[in-house]
């Protein structure tokens, strides 16, 4: 007698209970989620995403998104209140090559052509005198906040370009809001010469540094004075730069020369306004 075949049972499907909460249903258009995703995108990707549709445009234009991107890419802490939207500050900060960004907490800066520690804060003397005696000067009424640092290498503007054997090096620092101000754009703000002096003998290198006085003795600032960690070897003629949380410095080794002229300049936001840009230039004699 043959074995009796079992009757196959029908397959049962598991059905999850219906949620009473609407938030349990996944939505591609969850604002908080996309704002968090946006924090991992660079500026170009944010703009591309914003162009896909009106909904994304509204989310990607949130000021908090661009603030996060700007502080992240510049690697600086939150400076507090700013006068412009962060998307405009981002565009102004990343419009060209730069050394990096640093922060002015105080309203006083030390400008120095020497990067040998310890740096001495000048007494209340004239700028020309402190430049001659100490190779540095004190600059007050600095606009606090994020500053962008650049290194420019250009042909000497004061001689015949065809016969010029040297270049001029400029450490250029500016407040992040500078390019967005009408006074800068209409040309009413300009650089004033703080002082200059000559080194009338061979110079091994052209150096310059800008320091927040309040943080001159900070551990992060001391990294600038460790020259072996960032200055090039004697036969390396390429410019070098270093930026810390509250300072920036540059150095270029020089070949045989007859000396250099060093010029210090600053731009104010109007005649009695705060200092919004600083330059330290070195030119071969």
Automatic annotation (TrEMBL):
Q: What is this protein called?
A: F-box domain-containing protein
Entry's Gene Ontology BP terms: reproductive system development
PANTHER family from the entry? F-BOX PROTEIN RMF
Any one GO CC term of the record: nucleus
Species: Erythranthe guttata (Yellow monkey flower)
Lineage of producing organism: Eukaryota, Viridiplantae, Streptophyta, Embryophyta, Tracheophyta
Q: Which SUPFAM superfamilies match?
A: F-box domain (SSF81383)
């Amino acid at each position: 007698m043959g074995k009796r075949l079992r009757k196959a049972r029908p397959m049962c499907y598991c059905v999850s209970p219906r949620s009473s909460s609407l938030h349990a249903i996944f939505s591609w258009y969850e604002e908080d989620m996309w704002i968090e995703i946006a924090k991992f995108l660079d500026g170009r990707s944010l703009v591309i995403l914003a162009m896909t549709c009106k909904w994304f445009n509204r989310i990607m234009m949130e000021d908090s998104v661009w603030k996060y991107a700007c502080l992240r890419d510049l690697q600086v802490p939150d400076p507090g209140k700013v006068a412009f939207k962060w998307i405009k500050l981002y565009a102004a900060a990343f419009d060209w090559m730069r050394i990096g960004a640093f922060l002015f907490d105080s309203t006083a800066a030390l400008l120095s052509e020497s990067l040998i520690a310890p740096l001495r804060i000048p007494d209340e003397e004239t700028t020309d005198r402190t430049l001659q005696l100490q190779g540095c000067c004190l600059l007050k009424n600095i606009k606090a906040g994020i500053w962008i640092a650049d290194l420019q290498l250009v042909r000497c503007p004061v001689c015949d370009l065809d016969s010029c054997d040297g270049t001029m090096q400029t450490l250029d620092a500016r407040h992040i809001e500078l390019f967005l101000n009408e006074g800068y754009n209409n040309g009413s703000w300009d650089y004033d010469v703080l002082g200059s002096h000559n080194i009338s003998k061979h110079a091994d290198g052209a150096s310059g540094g800008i320091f927040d006085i309040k943080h001159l003795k900070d551990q992060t600032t001391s990294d600038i004075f460790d020259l072996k960690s960032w200055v090039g070897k004697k036969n390396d003629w390429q410019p070098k730069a270093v930026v810390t949380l509250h300072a920036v410095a540059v150095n270029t080794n020089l070949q045989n020369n007859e000396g250099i002229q060093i010029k210090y300049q600053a731009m104010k936001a109007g005649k009695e306004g705060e200092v919004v840009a600083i330059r330290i230039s070195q030119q071969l004699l």
